[in-house]
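Exercise 7.
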Amino acid sequence: MRTGRSRLAAKVRQSIEEPERIGKLWEAMDRARAARTTTIEKAGLDLPVFREQVRSIKETAVQDPTIAEAFAEAVRANGGHVFFASTGPEAVRYILDLCRAEKAEFLVKSKSLTSEEIEMNQGLEAEGIRAIETDLGELLCQVAGEKPSHLVMPAIHMTSERIARMLTEVYKEPIAPEPSSILSAVRARLRPMFLAANVGVTGANIGVAETGSIVVETNEGNGRLVSSVPRIHIALIGLEKIVRRWEDAADLVRGHAISATGQRMTVYVSLISQRQAVAGDPMGREFHVIILDNGRTRMRADPIFKDALNCIRCGACMNICPTYGVTGGHVFGHIYPGPIGIPWTANVHGLEEASFAHLCVSCGLCHEICPVDIDIPFMIAKVKEQDVEAHGQPTAERFFMASEAFAKLASLAAPLANGFLERGPMRLLMEWTLGVDRRRTLPAFTHRTLRSRFRNKSGGSERAGKVAFFPDLYAEYNNPDLGLRAIEILERLGYSVMIPDVRWSGMPYVSYGQLGKASKLAAANLRVLAPLVDQGYDIVSTEPTAVYMLRKVYPKLQEGDRAAQVADHSRGFFEFIERDLSRLPLRPDRDAAGTVGFHIPCHDRALSSGVPAMRFLEWAGYRVRPVETGTCCGIAGTYGMKSGWLGYELSMAVGEKLFDQFRASDCTLISTESSRHEPDRDRPDTGLITTGLLRLPRREVSRRPDTRGRPRAALPSVAGSRGPVLRRRRGRRRGRALRCRPPAGRCQTKLGSAKRST
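Solution. The predicted structure, written as C-alpha cells, is:
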C-alpha cells in the first residue's frame, strides 16, 4: 500500500499543478450538474419516485438469472449470433476470430466503455488489427494515447488548444482551436473509414429480452454508421444491462439522458433487433452479440458489491465528486473512473488497480446524486477495508480513528494539553510522527465536558416531547456551550432533554476502511438508543455527520429493526426545531445589517440540505444567501488534516473554488452547520461563523440549577452547530471588530485580504 499510495500521491501532485486542466474539468462538471438540475425542474420530475422506479427495474433485472438466456434466445430467433464470454480475453478472442475470418485489417468502433474494460483495442492491435475510434471524445483519447477520463465525456480534460495542436501534428495540416474546425477535420478522415470497414463494434446501453433488441444511445450519430454500414456488427454488452421489457428500457433511456448530460432525450436512440440483407450483397450481413460476465456473476452474489451492477453508466457521480474534480479520471480511475469506478475496478481488474479508492473523502455526495440510489460510499468503504487488510493502515488514519480516546485524554489534561498542542514544535513533531499536517491545528479541549455540566437533569417539561441529545465529540469535549445552548432551546420549546450514555458516531472508521470497528460501535450505540426510541424519545444532534451516521450508515452496518427504528427517529437540531421557530423569540447576536453566506455541509445534503438552518437565521433577522460550489469544501472531516498530497494539499485544491466564491461575495459573515477548523488566515476579522449568531432574551431563566444550586441565567447566544468562539480583539472597545478563535473542527478557509466591515 505504501508504494501504491506513494504513486497515487505523485499523480495527485502532478494533476493539481495543472490549473488550466483543472479549470476545464471543473467547468464541464459544473455545466453537467446545472443542466441536470434544470432538466429535472422543467420536466417536473419527482426525483425520489423516479429513482425508486429506476432502481426497481435494475434490481429486478440484475438479480434474474434467467434474463440473459432469454435475451440470447430472442437474438438467435432474429437471426443473430450470441456468445457468452466469461472473461475479457474470451470476448477479445471472439472478436479477433471474426476479424480474421473477414480478413479485416481494421474495424470501426462506437460507444463501448465495456470494450475498454476488456482492453479490446490493445488485444486486437497486438494481432495486427486496428480498432478505430469514431466518437470524438474517444478518438481524441486514442490519438493522445490516453484512457477516457469520464464515463460519458471521455475527453473532458482536454482544452481546444491542446486538441488542435495534437490533430495538427497527426493530420499534418493546420487546425484552428475552434470546435467547427476540429469537427470538420475529424469528419473528413472518418468518412472513408466507415465506408471501407467490414467490421463494426458498438456497445449497448440496454438489451431487451422480450424482443432480443439492443438500445444504443449517442449524441453524435456515429453509432448508427458503425452498426449499419459494415457487413458485420458486433455488439458488446454486460449481462447487467439486460432488462425484461420495453417499458423498462424506456424508463432507463430517460434516466440515462437526464443524469448524464441533462437532456430530456439523447440525440440518437437506436433500436437494433436484426440486420436485413442489402441488395447486391451475396454474403449477407451478420449481427453478433457478446454477453460479457467478467466478474459480474461474482458481484451479483456479493451482498455489498451487487449494488454496483445497478449502475446505468451516467457519470453523475463524477460530476459531483470533489476530488475527481481536481484530479480527473486518469488519477481518479483505472478504466472505470470516478466513485463508481472504485468498486467496479476492484471487482473486475483487481484490488491493486483500485488504489485510487483513497482519493474518496467519504462526503457521500455520489450517493445523493445517483439516479439509481446506489450506495457508492459504502461500497468504497468496503474496498478500502480490503486494501487495509492487504496492505496495512497509515499512521494518520489510525490516529484519527482513535479520536474518541484522544479527546478524552486531552480533555482530562486541559487546558495544559491545549497549550502543548498549539506549540509549533509539537505540531511539527505530530506531522513527522502521526502524519497530522502542521498547518492544521487540533481543536481546543475543555476539562468541563458537556456531560459534567449537564448532569442529565433536564429543566424542561415533556409537554412537547422527549429528546435524547447525541453530542458526538465536538459538543462533548470541545465546545460544551454548543450543546448547552441547543438544550436550552429544546427546553424552552417544551422538550425534556437527556444525554444518553453513547459513544461517538465513528465516521473515521467508515472513511478509513475499518467497517468491523464501525459495526461494533454502531451496535453499542444502538443498544442505548433503541430502547429510548421505544420510550418515545427523539434523537437530536447538532453534528450533521452524527445524524448522517445514525440515519444512513448504521442501518448498513447493523441490519434489522433496531437500526431502522433509530434512523427514523434521528434528526439534526435545526431540522427538529424548524416547525417550532414561530415560538422562539430570537434576535441577532451580531450586527444583522450584512449578508450571511451559508455553506451546506456535505453530510447535511443527504439530510436537509441546510434549509432548516438557513430558515433559522432568517427568522432571527439575518439576510442569508447560500454560497455554494455544489460540492465539498475540501476538509472532509479529518481527511484534510492529514499531511501530504493525499490530505492537506488535496483538500486545499478542492476548497479553492469555494474560497473564490466567498472572496467574490458581499457576505460579511460566513455560516455553516458543521464544525470548522481555522478562520481566514488572510483576513483575521472574518472567520467561519456558525449558525450560533443569535440570542434569546436574557430575562428568561433556565429551570436547571448550576453546580452550586443557583438558578442558571439564560445563555446569551443560541446554539447553532459548530464554529468559532467570538472574542474581542485586544485594544478594541466592546462592539467593535471581533476575532474568531477556532475551538475545533473541519474547515480551514482562505478567503482573501479585504477586511470585513464591522
